Amino acid sequence: MNDAGVQEGVVVLGDHVQGLGIIRCFGRKKIPVYLVNDKGLCVGRFSRFLTGFLKSPEFNDEQGLVSYLMDIGKRKGLHKFLIIPTNDLAVRIVSKNKEILSSIYTISTPNLDAIELIYNKRRTFELAKRLGVPIPNTIFPSSVENLDTLLSDVSYPLIIKGSIGHIFYKTTGTKLFVVNSKEEILDFYQKYKGSIQPSDTIIQELIDGPTENVHSFCSFFKEGQVYAWWSGKKIRAHPMLYGTATLAESVHDPSLLEYGSRLLNAMGYYGVSEIEFKLDPRDGVFKLLEMNARTWLWVSLAIRCGVDLPYILYSDMIKNETITVDSFKVDIKWYHFYTDSAMVLREILNSRMSIKEYLSSVKGEKELAVFSTDDPLPFIAETLLLPYLWLTR
């Protein structure tokens, strides 16, 4: 119990289906859980397991968000409640304001030095390169003028992505661009001149191979040690080759444990993270794609498989009990019906998939991203909100 005599609970900062998964994780355990989001319409707020929904200022308004969190913490008696952010911007805000927020809340988010190594993807890849963690062939441009030298020995296609993903996405409307020549690279920088600097981007080889080659290593890391871990792979994504998962599956992949531990240890990391790798068919080596200092979209699959990372974090921070998990169920799938259906329809219309292949891909035990028999309203809400969600994302 906290100072007000209330059981310490959780504040989920953000939403989308991972927010819903976290809400259900704690709500089913009778642990109070609040959702703080800057959008009024979101699937998580309709969960019967939610203690309360709180509409905040926009996350882009850092000081406004922090002031709001401090205010509701005092008014609603959320002392020692654990804040769990669900997106990169929220992670950074919590980390930057850790000292003031800690006067009310429990903050598991690492200090800013560690977060910046993850938030800025350029720094992530530079660190991985120093540590000997395999990465795709990567160029760090500083200006358009030095591209001639940097591109002298590359193989196309390449991708251009932002050092800070959400800023790049907000400007361009996409996660990355695939380019097939130097001219296309120059056209990109010319198009976004004034809004995107070359020094704020990464140019990287596009690793060939199917979506199934993208694997995630997810863990609870503390004091230089992995206490609990889980791994899974994407089956389909949006966009198909380099997007977020729409269908995924649990797989036991201990080969990622060494690389993941090496990165987390060098950062002095604490808490839950996701590190994404892709198997390069040319040399059979997993290579780093990105890292998230938080839970990820399909975290409910890990929970279903027996690695309840949000609760493991809560247990360590709130109950001072460290839980160790080194085995989990495999061959269980995570399925987001609406986003996957849209991708499948596109693949079928373009003759890249048959209906038989689709039906085969969704066979077996599944963790549904939104629908749940004990919590049906979020799926009903998602169905009704589809036009709004499509436009806002």
TrEMBL record:
Outline the extent of the ATP-grasp domain: 125-318
PROSITE patterns assigned to the protein according to its UniProt record, in alphabetical order: ATP_GRASP
Q: Which InterPro entries match?
A: ATP-grasp (IPR011761), ATP_grasp_subdomain_1 (IPR013815)
Q: Keywords of this protein's UniProt record, alphabetized?
A: ATP-binding, Nucleotide-binding
The keyword Isomerase is annotated on this UniProt entry: no
Q: Which GO terms describe its molecular function?
A: ATP binding; metal ion binding
UniProt key word ATP-binding: yes
The molecule here is called ATP-grasp domain-containing protein
